[in-house]
Design goal:
228 residues; mainly alpha
């Protein structure tokens, strides 16, 4: 109050006036600077001074937790996709390498003793002309003379053609099995068809059966089991 009375009465010395004026100017500048900072924070960062975080609460722990969660999600996704793609790639390779299986009578004996239709259909399959072989095998299945091998070969045509239709392969292979078709070969191709359609429990069962009885393609079946 004494300083205020002296200021009003004009009793300040020149030095005191300069000192007070300097304090007032600094106070004014500090206030203007704080307003500018507040405007800058609100305009560019959406932070209001009243909402500013406490110095004791920093964003760093939250950012670290978020980064760790993101890293964990990426690693999990990579593991799942790489594991899935591994068995799928192996399955596709095995399908491409499928050889002529089942009833070999067409290739060994030629057309003698078998129908001309079955001969033509089987030769299309042997030449990997799957699209041409499919309608011929379908005609065979529609006739009373159909055999387990016709189901088997038609299934292989659907599985091995360029745009594979594994879903059509499975019921054909099951029918070939029911009619006494080649058991070991059917089990192997059926496991590949199950893998191709994503039916992993069924594929695992077929593959494990091959391994347990040391059947056809037992080593390849065991390798596939390790991939999923």
């Amino acid at each position: 109050m004494n300083h205020l009375a002296k200021y009003i009465e004009g009793n300040f010395s020149e030095g005191e006036l300069e000192q007070i004026s300097e304090h007032l100017i600094n106070a004014k500048l500090d206030r203007d600077r704080r307003r500018e900072w507040a405007t800058e924070l609100e305009t560019h960062y959406g932070v209001h001074p009243d909402q500013a975080p406490s110095p004791r609460r920093t964003w760093l722990p939250y950012a670290l937790v978020a980064a760790l969660l993101l890293l964990g999600a990426l690693l999990c996704y990579y593991w799942l996709t790489s594991s899935s793609s591994s068995y799928q790639l192996a399955t596709d390779q095995h399908i491409r390498e499928l050889s002529i299986m089942g009833d070999q009578s067409v290739l060994r004996k030629g057309p003698q003793g078998i129908s001309e239709l079955r001969s033509e259909a089987s030769l299309h399959y042997a030449r990997r002309q799957y699209e041409q072989g499919i309608p011929l095998f379908e005609q065979l299945l529609a006739s009373p003379a159909s055999q387990a091998s016709d189901y088997f070969y038609l299934a292989l045509c659907h599985l091995q053609k360029t745009n594979a239709e594994a879903a059509k392969t499975i019921p054909l292979l099951l029918q070939a099995r029911a009619l006494g078709g080649p058991a070991e070969e059917t089990a192997w191709v059926l496991s590949l068809a199950y893998l191709k359609t994503g039916a992993l429990p069924e594929a695992r069962q077929e593959l494990q059966g091959i391994v347990d009885r040391k059947g056809y393609k037992a080593r390849e079946a065991e390798a596939l089991l390790r991939l999923f």
